[in-house]
Amino acid sequence: MTLPPPPPTTATLPGARHGRDPDRAIKRGPRRVPAEEVAATQRDRLFDGLVREVASRGYDSARVTDICHAAGVTRPAFYALFSGKQDAFLAAYRHGVAVVSQLMEDAYRQAGPTWPDAARAALRMLLDVLASVPAFARMALVEVDAAGPDAWRERDALLHSFRRFFADAGPAPTGVDRAALVSTVVGGIHATVRERVAQGRAEELPLLLPALTYAATAPFLGRDQARRAARAQGPEDGPAATAPCAPGGQP
To answer: Is residue 120 helix, strand or coil?
Structure first.
């Protein structure tokens, strides 16, 4: 595969935990917790609180007060980390999509031996992870539309970055602009996944794997090979993958 190995990370997906998770409470006592550790814990709790509040109330209706309450963090602590709701939203969005992108890259590299296997593995990881944290799926795919031009640019950059998963796909059909074809495929997959999440059916996303695999591979492989890729059972077809710290995922 052409993708370079990403750096190791223990990052978790925003929204996978409750912001008031007692395991992340700042312990009081004679031993002073370093300020950097306190800030990092508060930031992660605010990410979780923001994702869950935005997913349940909508971006426009979620207030900083609501986010702070969901996270168990004071407003002064919030404003020490972020300039406002949009700043916090963008930070949580960037953090979350970086986690999802790395999980997809890991799946892409570890699958094989062919590009259809790798593409299917990356798609399966995307669908499984979003299904495991529906709040993040809604925040990142639906509510991002309400978060303003800066958020739209982040979303567009993310979609553009997904073109890298087609680097090994081979040439486009004769007379077809390959870059435009890849953009069309990526945009179509995004629209299909977004529609299911907007309908409140994020848990059904893994059921889209055969259709999305076919849509991703048919323009480059033809119908017969794309059908085989869509029906293929690979090593990744075990238990559903979950986002870090999602229910049933990593502790």
So the answer is: helix
Domain with CATH 1.10.10.60 in the chain: 22-85
Q: Helical H runs in the chain? A: 35-57, 64-71, 75-81, 85-110, 115-132, 134-141, 149-161, 178-198, 209-221, 223-231
Class of 22-85 in CATH: mainly alpha
pLDDT in tens, 21-30: 766 666 555 4
Quick one: angle between helices 35-57 and 134-141, nearest 10?
A: 80
DSSP state of 81: H
- How far is it, in rounded angstroms, from Cα 95 to Cα 90? 8
CA geometry: angle at 148 spanning 142 and 154, to 5°? 75
Q: How many CB atoms lie within 10 A of CB 37?
A: 10
The model's pTM: 0.86
Per-residue tokens: 38: 């306190």
Name the CATH architecture for the domain at 87-231: Orthogonal Bundle (1.10)
Of 116, 222, 227, whose CA–CA distance to 165 is shortest? 116
- Report pLDDT for 225: 84
Rg (CA), the chain: 19
- Which residues of the chain form CATH 1.10.357? 87-231
Distances in Å between the Cα of 82 and the Cα atoms of 52, 70, 75, 77, 233 are: 18, 16, 10, 9, 45
User: pLDDT below 70 — which residues of the chain?
Assistant: 1-10, 22-33, 233-239, 245, 248-251
